[in-house]
Amino acid sequence: MSFLVKNYNRKQISFKRGKGAYLYTANNIKYLDFVQGIAVNCLGHANPKLIKTIKDQAKKLWHVSNAFQIPEGEQLAKKLCQKTFADYVMFQNSGAEATEAAIKVARRYFYSIGKPHKNRILCVKNSFHGRTIASIFASGSKKMTEGFGPKVPGFDHFIFGDHKSLKKKINKNTAAIMVENIMGEGGIKVIPDFCLRELRKLCNKKKILLIADSVQDGVGRSGDFFAFERSKIKPDIVPIAKGIGGGFPIGAVLMNKKVAAGMTPGTHGSTFGGNPLAMAVGNKVMDIVSSKKFLDNVKNSSKYLLSNLNFLKEKYPKIIKEIRGRGLLIGIQLHRDQSVFINKLLDNKLLTIRAAENVVRILPPLNVKKYELDQALKIIDKVCKELK
Fold first, then answer.
1. Residue 10 pLDDT greater than 90, yes or no
2. What whole-number distance in Å separates Cα of residue 299 and Cα of residue 17?
3. Dihedral over alpha carbons 15, 302, 182, 42 (to 10 degrees)
4. In what order do the strands lie in the sheet containing 120-124?
5. What confidence tens digit (pLDDT) does each residue in 301-351 have?
6. 155-158 and 120-124 strand pairing
7. Is the dihedral of CA 78, 88, 365, 46 positive or negative?
8. Residue 59, class by beta-carbon neighbours within 10 Å (0-12 exposed, 13-18 middle, 19+ buried)?
9. What are phi and psi for residue 206, nearest 5 degrees?
10. Which range among 139-143, 247-251, 310-314 shows the weakest confidence by mean pLDDT?
11. What's the angle, vertex CA 105, arms to CA 100 and CA 111, rounded to 5?
12. Fewer beta carbons within 10 Å, N or C terminal of the chain?
């Protein structure tokens, strides 16, 4: 009997250890893990550099209150600001915390400049920004919000790709537009670069803020440090998590100087956010991801994987409908429900996870090896052949 609440539909399999791109059961059965905690373990399982960092820091200091200076957090904030558009960083513990905090930052900014009525956040319908009470209503998904009423006010929604709907929804009370650069749970749908540029122009014209939710696509997952960088835009606020900790719980909100001015002492806090142990790990992840050629290798792996997946799409047109994504955030959209496909991949020792629109998500570690990609492609080919 399990004493865990049944809020997850868990597969009947567990793992005892992991190494790089692989997980191992208690019986030492080896699985190729292309879930990686849902884009969390950006450097794979049991990365030796992260293990050493955790051990070294654990001997010194795990936790201290944010009532005091935390040098490790100062170091990570500096690295993030020097690498990105941001002027300031506010640390959290997860992606949902980061998106909630991003909403607070946007609303607080307008309050601080004497416009408290500007407090509504405009989001894509059926997007994903976390599972806290506010973030599920930001997502606007009936499935996610059912049974959790009353409705949290302050959110409006538009349909993905419907520019007319977006413009009509902006009103005098709109504070910000919040979008995922690549919709993860929503089916690996990439916002085109020209759309992001137009979105930035629209926000400038309407004098509202742009929040680019980079929790899943950030920290190199897209092949760039942030997916929006290809469009050359600068958002006002960017929540991140997942990859920045390499498997250790870290979240953060990056922001420009303008909006940061509204976040005065006492406006937000997090007991565990920015603790020394988490910050030490984040610093090491940043050092690795920022190292020479790391992102070039991600792009090369992506090009190879996407090219071969598109070949399989042409080979099995009745199975695969579309190959989506960017970097190593990839989706295989099928013509039918993906459950059987995912289970057959599992039977062949390849771990994947579902997304909306019959999509199978492919999320290898960012330092994945070519032979590991070949192994995954061989298994996908085999399953397609069995199902055709």
1. yes
2. 28
3. 40
4. 88-92, 251-255, 237-240, 209-213, 174-180, 120-124, 155-158
5. 999 999 999 999 999 999 999 999 999 999 999 999 999 999 999 999 999
6. parallel
7. positive
8. exposed
9. -85, -5
10. 139-143
11. 125
12. N
Taking the domains of the chain in order of start, what are their residue ranges? 49-289
- Mean pLDDT calculated for residue range 120-138: 95
The position carrying tokens 């992991």 is 18
Q: Which CATH architecture has domain 49-289?
A: 3-Layer(aba) Sandwich (3.40)
Phi (first) and psi of residue 370, to 5 degrees: -60, -40
Strand blocks (E) in 181-326: 182-183, 189-190, 209-213, 237-240, 251-255, 320-326
**Model-wide pTM > 0.90:** yes
DSSP state, residue 15: -
pLDDT at 74 over 90: yes
Q: Which has the closest alpha carbon to 350: 323, 319, 374?
A: 374
| Model confidence at 165: pLDDT above 90 | no
Check residue 161 and give its pLDDT.
85
Q: Which two tokens stand for residue 197?
A: 């540029």
Residue 161: half-sphere exposure toward Cβ, Cα within 13 Å? 5
Percent of the chain with pLDDT over 70: 100
Alpha carbon distance 214, 85 (integer Å): 13
Q: What is the pLDDT of residue 163?
A: 85
First-to-final CA distance of the chain = 39
Instruction: For residue 201, give the amino acid letter.
Output: K
- 117 contacts 173 by C-beta, under 8 angstroms: yes
Identify the bridge partners of residue 320 per DSSP, sorted by sequence position. 334
> In whole angstroms, what is the distance from residue 200 CA to residue 217 CA?
19
Nearest of 107, 334, 6, 205 to residue 345 by alpha carbon: 334
Residue (of 309, 340, 312) closest to 325 by Cα position? 309
Q: How far is CA 294 from the centre of its chain?
A: 19
Cα separation, 377 vs 29, whole angstroms: 20
pLDDT bracket for residue 42 (50, 70, 90) = very high
Q: Which two tokens stand for residue 166?
A: 């977006």
